Amino acid sequence: MNQKVKTKIAVVGAGAIGSVLGGLLAHAGEDVTLISRKAHIDAINKNGLFMDGVLGELKIKVKATEKLNFKPDLVLLPVKTQDVKKACEEIKPYVKDIPTLTMQNGVRSDEIASSVFGKENIISCVVNFGAIFLEPGKVTYRRKGFLITGEAFSKNRERVNEIALILNKAKYIKTEISNNIHGAHWTKLLGNLIVNCQAAMTGLTLGECGEYSILRKIVVMILREAFQVIEKVGIKLEPLPTVRPSLFRTLTKLPLPLSSLVIRILSKRFGKAPSSTLQSILRGKPTEIDYLNGEIVRLGKKIGIPTPYNSKVVELVHEVEKTHKFYSPDDLKKIFKW
Question: Domain range for residue 14?
Answer without folding.
Answer: 8-179
